[in-house]
């Protein structure tokens, strides 16, 4: 299934990266969480970051989104070396992160969630107010672009499926000017159909020229949509492969660190 | 390649307007108000629903409502303040001391009192946020601390009494006094009385001299709070902070500032009530506002606020408070023993919580 996909794929090797992280190391006391990670994202590509639990994926995302500062290493935005002093800095540079909790509030409407913290206003002074009409229009339109027809902009997020919520979070990030979109295991809790919806959302976003970082431990999901694949194991990158040059089995092996899984796989008859 | 998604989803029935109405947070309190009104129309003396009877129950409703609207805003923001009852007494003492002992005019004394209250609100808020403890516990501590400080402070100010008198004399001539005590629109009511529209005493003065100012404050606060909640970015932040503080913060909502501001607002509401009560009574007492924190929270819950935050309305708290005033005063117009009031209160609270829970499930589509 991995060779073929209905998705278009970006020309991975041609354009300059938006963000590049070089030899990132991160120590927590005497624990070495990251030990030399190099990763970059180009516009219009989906770069998958694969790794098993404990490989350092979360630490790395937090570094990329400005939540954590690396102990060593360089971060370059459009070729310029930068440091992020907080998540706001990363957001201002166009690095948006959709964490697993999605930053969505179930009791609030889709529109209120969409614009949470960045409400459009009209009027001034005491009469400065939340421009509901414009917010609703934008929200419905952005969701339609992503292939979701809302019952109404006042529909509570709690009534949406997991995949739809993921899509709202992605649409929100893109609407607010994301150039790089980091998705933290967006498909891990979803069913088959919802997963394919999210994957096609990733494809739409990529087409708009946004660089997508797709974090996953599911090789099938990654291969379905990714242009490049980087495997993280025990805090280190084991190299980056371009689409078509690597098979699911090879990726799986790299993630697990090789032989033990191969033995396991033998006894399980190739079911994982 | 745009993917064709059908404009309607065949699995979702279109909602009737009733179904939409049921999702409004204030619906329960409006239904409750109708129920209570019908009950008293049947059981109570007809004097209850004359103009003076209505003012009679709206006045305590308004006093509670000023607290309840503050409590409701804070609850929507995801926190509790159990110290508002004690805050009424504490702010009353501060106000009394400023006016009587220091002889300050109202234009200075009132802002100072409100600022003091706001400061206590900041302390409550910062302690809750920084320790990460439930606000329930932090403000429970302040329930006792403020009550105790009021007792100690009043005794120190008066030389042993827990009551400070002389406020009426000190404020009677003040320009600002009519804003915080007595009745408004007296001229209008006198004119209405002359033309025979409203009832008068035999000597020609109207039975209701005007609208008690607390009712105007109550209505004004309810409207302002509703405007903020539904029509401003700050309102969105309040719902977001109460719904999920972590998610809100990740989305860029200044959650700490929002919560601190709400604690300040709640305390200021309590102080505003204290100023009005003290000026009306002419004295301040350490027992003022006793157990009002519970009544305020109950009115907010009857008004549709969820105990877990993120949902509710100021209009709901408005109606919740009117229900309250109606029952407290209404029972005196009936043959029913007034002590049933507490039973009623508890029952109403239980009913409201169960009802709100059902509503929440409908809104979020939980099954």
UniProtKB/TrEMBL annotation, chain A:
Presence of the UniProt keyword Transit peptide in the record: no
Domain of life (superkingdom): Bacteria
Domain ABC transporter, chain residue ranges per copy: 19-259
Gene3D superfamilies to which the protein is assigned, alphabetical: P-loop containing nucleotide triphosphate hydrolases (3.40.50.300)
Keywords carried by this UniProt record: ATP-binding, Nucleotide-binding
SUPFAM superfamilies for the chain: P-loop containing nucleoside triphosphate hydrolases (SSF52540)
Annotated GO MF terms: ATP binding; ATP hydrolysis activity
Pfam families per record: ABC_tran (PF00005)
Cross-referenced InterPro entries: AAA+_ATPase, ABC_carbohydrate_import_ATPase, ABC_transporter-like_ATP-bd, P-loop_NTPase
Identification of the protein by name: Sugar ABC transporter ATP-binding protein
TrEMBL record, chain B:
Top-level taxon in the UniProt lineage: Bacteria
Pfam families in the cross-refs: BPD_transp_2
Signal peptide: none
Keyword Transmembrane: yes
Gene Ontology MF annotations: transmembrane transporter activity
Cellular component terms (Gene Ontology): plasma membrane
Entry protein name: Xylose transport system permease protein XylH
Top-level taxonomy: Bacteria, Pseudomonadati, Pseudomonadota, Alphaproteobacteria, Rhodobacterales
């Amino acid at each position: 299934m991995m060779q073929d996909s209905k998705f278009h794929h970006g020309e991975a090797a041609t354009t300059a990266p938006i963000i590049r992280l070089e030899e990132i190391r991160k120590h927590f006391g005497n624990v070495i969480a990251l030990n030399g990670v190099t990763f970059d994202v180009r516009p219009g590509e989906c770069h998958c970051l694969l790794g098993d639990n404990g490989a350092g994926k979360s630490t790395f995302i937090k570094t990329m989104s400005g939540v954590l500062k690396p102990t060593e290493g360089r971060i370059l935005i459009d070729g310029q070396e930068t440091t992020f002093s907080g998540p706001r800095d990363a957001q201002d540079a166009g690095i948006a992160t959709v964490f697993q909790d999605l930053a969505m509030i179930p009791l609030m409407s889709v529109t209120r969630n969409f614009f949470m913290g960045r409400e459009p206003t009209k009027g001034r002074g005491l009469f400065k107010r939340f421009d509901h009409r414009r917010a609703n229009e934008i929200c419905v339109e952005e969701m339609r672009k992503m292939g979701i027809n809302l019952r109404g902009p006042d529909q509570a997020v709690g009534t949406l499926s997991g995949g739809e919520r993921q899509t709202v979070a992605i649409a929100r990030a893109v609407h607010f000017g994301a150039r790089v979109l980091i998705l933290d295991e967006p498909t891990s809790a979803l069913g088959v159909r919802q997963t394919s919806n999210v994957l096609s959302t990733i494809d739409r976003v990529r087409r708009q020229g946004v660089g997508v970082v797709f974090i996953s431990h599911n090789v099938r999901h990654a291969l379905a949509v990714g242009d490049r694949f980087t495997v993280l194991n025990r805090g280190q990158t084991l190299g980056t492969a371009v689409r078509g040059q690597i098979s699911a089995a090879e990726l799986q092996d790299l993630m697990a660190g090789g032989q033990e899984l191969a033995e396991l796989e033998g006894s399980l008859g190739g079911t994982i | 390649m745009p993917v064709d998604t059908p404009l309607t989803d065949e699995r979702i029935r279109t909602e009737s307007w009733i179904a939409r109405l049921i999702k409004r947070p204030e619906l329960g309190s409006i239904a409750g108000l109708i129920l209570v009104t019908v009950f008293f129309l049947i059981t109570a003396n007809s004097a209850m629903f004359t103009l003076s009877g209505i003012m009679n129950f709206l006045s305590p409703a308004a006093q509670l409502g000023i607290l309840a609207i503050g409590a409701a805003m804070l609850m929507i923001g995801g926190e509790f303040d159990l110290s508002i009852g004690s805050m009424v007494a504490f702010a009353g003492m501060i106000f009394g001391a400023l006016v009587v002992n220091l002889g300050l005019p109202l234009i200075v004394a009132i802002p100072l009192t409100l600022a003091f209250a706001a400061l206590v609100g900041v302390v409550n808020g910062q302690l809750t946020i920084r320790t990460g403890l439930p606000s329930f516990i932090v403000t429970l501590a302040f329930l006792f601390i403020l009550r105790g400080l009021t007792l100690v402070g009043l005794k120190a100010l008066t030389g042993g009494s827990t009551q400070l008198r002389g406020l009426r004399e000190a404020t009677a001539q003040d320009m600002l006094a009519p804003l915080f005590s007595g009745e408004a629109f007296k001229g209008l009511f006198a004119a209405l009385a002359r033309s025979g529209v409203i009832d008068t005493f035999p000597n020609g003065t109207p039975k209701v001299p005007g609208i008690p100012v607390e009712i105007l404050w109550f209505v004004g606060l309810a409207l302002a709070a509703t405007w903020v909640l539904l029509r401003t970015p700050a309102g969105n932040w309040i719902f977001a902070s109460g719904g999920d503080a972590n998610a809100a913060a990740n989305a860029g909502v200044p959650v700490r500032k929002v919560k601190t501001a709400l604690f300040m607002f709640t305390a200021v509401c309590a102080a505003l009530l204290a100023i009005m009560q003290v000026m009306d009574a002419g004295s301040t007492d350490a027992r003022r506002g006793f157990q009002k924190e519970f009544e305020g929270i109950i009115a907010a819950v009857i008004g549709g606020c969820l105990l877990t935050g993120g949902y509710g309305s100021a209009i709901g708290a408005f109606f919740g408070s009117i229900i309250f005033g109606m029952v407290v005063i209404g029972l005196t117009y009936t043959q029913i023993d007034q002590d049933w009031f507490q039973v009623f209160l508890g029952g109403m609270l239980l009913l409201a919580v169960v009802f709100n829970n059902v509503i929440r499930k409908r809104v979020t589509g939980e099954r």
